[in-house]
Write a structure and sequence with these properties.
By secondary structure, the protein is α/β, with parallel strands linked by helices. It has a single domain (13-219), classed as Vaccinia Virus protein VP39 (Rossmann fold, 3-Layer(aba) Sandwich), CATH 3.40.50.150. Helices cover 41% and strands 18% of the residues. It has eight helices and seven strands; from the N terminus they run ααβαβαββαβαααββ. The radius of gyration is 16 Å and the shape is globular.
Length: 222
């Protein structure tokens, strides 16, 4: 199946509300547990950059799992960030999590570099994938762990429809639509390996971790 790009930002109020109210506990907890498995010896006592944090559900789960770290989450959609700020306050994490509106490329971040860089489901939204890899290199410190999770494009429309039916059959229409569009916009492992090679990050691993997700992980070299 050929890749079909989708809009970069999710800035519609009903769209943002649907995401904020949906239960993504299974994939988002999986994100955290996979990070812990890939980097078992990393205590993360510094500041983490979360690129494309959306409504901050992964951000909050990550902050709870690593109580000695702070997290700066950045996203270009103000509607998503509005729900994210409410969730951060509700979780009592305002002292450790700050959310910043910023559009990649060109986002202005509070710190010049970060001790780790994470991202969930941002890559397939970007108009150009190299934007993500350049920001990872620009803002990650030497030796920083990098953990990027994203959707995996199915082989064909039949498989795509099966995934939508399996994971979003009871979801609101806006979520079913977005899930379908995101699957079409996602990359295949070989495509991401080519991106990493171009970016000089070919030491990073690309691993399929579920029937609909893959992970890119590694440490930035000096």
């Amino acid at each position: 199946m050929q890749r079909v790009p989708e809009p970069e930002l999710m800035d519609e109020e009903d769209q943002a509300r649907a995401y904020a109210e949906a239960d993504f506990s299974e994939p988002h907890d999986h994100f955290v547990s996979l990070f812990q498995a890939v980097f078992p010896d990393d205590s993360l006592a510094g500041t983490v950059l979360d690129l494309g944090c959306g409504s901050a559900d992964v951000t909050i789960r990550f902050a709870r799992a690593f109580p000695n770290c702070r997290i700066d989450g950045v996203d270009g959609a103000e509607a998503m960030l509005g729900f994210g700020r409410k969730a951060v306050r509700s979780a009592g994490l305002e002292h450790r999590v700050r959310l910043i509106r910023g559009y990649l490329p060109g986002a202005r971040l509070p710190l010049p570099s970060y001790d780790a860089v994470i991202s969930n489901s941002l890559l397939h939204h970007l108009a150009g994938p190299m934007v993500l890899w350049k920001h990872v290199q620009r803002f990650g410190k030497s030796g920083a762990p990098v953990f990027i999770m994203d959707l995996l494009r199915p082989e064909d429309e039949e498989r795509l429809n099966e995934l939508v039916q399996q994971y979003a059959a009871d979801a609101p229409e806006v979520l079913r639509r977005d899930f379908s569009n995101s699957l079409r916009a996602a990359y295949r492992p070989d495509e991401i390996r080519e991106q990493l090679k171009t970016a000089g990050l070919d030491s990073f691993a690309v691993t399929v971790v579920s029937d609909r997700h893959l992970v890119v992980s590694g440490r930035l070299s000096s």
